[in-house]
Design brief:
One of its GO terms (molecular function) is branched-chain amino acid transmembrane transporter activity. One of its GO terms (biological process) is L-amino acid transport. Keywords: Amino-acid transport, ATP-binding, Cell membrane, Membrane, Nucleotide-binding, Transport. There is one protein chain. The protein has 234 residues and is α/β, with parallel strands linked by helices. The chain has a single domain, classed as 3-Layer(aba) Sandwich (Rossmann fold). Helix content is 38%, strand content 26%. The chain is built from ten helices and ten strands. Strand 4 and strand 5 form a beta hairpin. It is globular and about 45 Å long. Bound molecules: adenosine-5'-triphosphate.
């Protein structure tokens, strides 16, 4: 059984039908990329998985539990955490305090030493306020918060947006480390090259429909699909 099974979900904003019979699966320890042009429905899909939006039909099973009707905070407690695009790091408190707050809402938080081993940069910056951090460091705090809550599945919405190439590389390494440590990652990213280089598999969304699902190398070997659905982004 896969860690996450999504079967035929349909999501709406009011009357606007955004996701059409979306099905996919994510296995333990995988890094899976969700790709597609602006407006394809990638963020809507992540929000539906995390319970921030409710699908009007279809099923979502996480670790064997049906979650499609569950509120977001309960889904988070089961071990599925969304790291939203805005990062939402508290600027007025330190890195360590940001992590402490996240740990307080966890069922079984990880130790700080474990977190700082994975994020040595945050160890160096643990006494700095959130607002003093670079964009890349804020992204690390956002991911570390999901990790300290012992998330099994971490959904990352455009984690590399606006970041310099060197910090993107650091973050990619961290994501691959997390997968090696037994966590599973789904990443939505406009930086197609970066997403494909870190993902084992990928799904391609076009106007709310899945038009490709398979190994990252398989997609890379199909330039006609890359051009048709990703265009200049590829
Ligand atoms: N709150 C909302 N109310 C109504 N429509 C929305 C809302 N949020 C998004 N949409 C619409 O849903 C569609 C999918 O948006 P979504 O943000 O999921 O796409 P995306 O693939 O993540 O694109 P991007 O990379 O631009 O964020 C778009 O047509 C968008 O205009």
């Amino acid at each position: 059984m896969s860690l996450l099974e999504v079967d035929g979900i349909n999501t709406f904003y009011g009357d606007s039908h955004i996701l059409f019979d979306v099905s996919l699966e994510v296995k333990e320890n995988e890094v899976v990329a969700l790709l597609g042009r602006n407006g394809a429905g990638k963020s809507t899909l992540l929000k539906t998985l995390a319970g921030a939006l409710t699908a009007r039909s279809g099923n979502i099973t996480f670790s064997g539990t049906p979650i499609q009707k569950m509120p977001a905070h309960l889904i988070a407690r089961l071990g599925l955490q969304l790291v939203p695009e805005e990062r939402r790091v508290f600027g007025g408190i330190t890195v360590h305090e940001n992590l402490k707050l996240a740990a307080m809402t966890a069922k079984k938080p990880l130790s700080f030493s474990e977190i700082y081993r994975t994020f040595p940069r945050l160890d160096e910056r643990r006494g700095n306020k959130g607002r003093e951090l670079s964009g890349g460091e804020q992204q690390m705090v956002a991911i570390a918060r999901a990790m300290i809550r012992d998330a099994q599945l971490i959904l990352l919405d455009e984690p590399f947006e606006g970041l310099a190439p060197l910090i993107v590389r650091d973050l990619m390494n961290i994501c691959q480390d997390l997968a090696r440590q037994g966590r599973t990652i789904v990443v939505v990213e406009q930086n197609v090259a970066a997403a494909l280089s870190m993902a084992d598999r990928c799904y391609l969304l076009n106007t709310g429909h899945i038009v490709f699902g398979g190994a990252s190398e398989e997609l890379q070997s199909k330039p006609e699909i890359m051009n048709r659905y990703l265009g200049a982004a590829a």
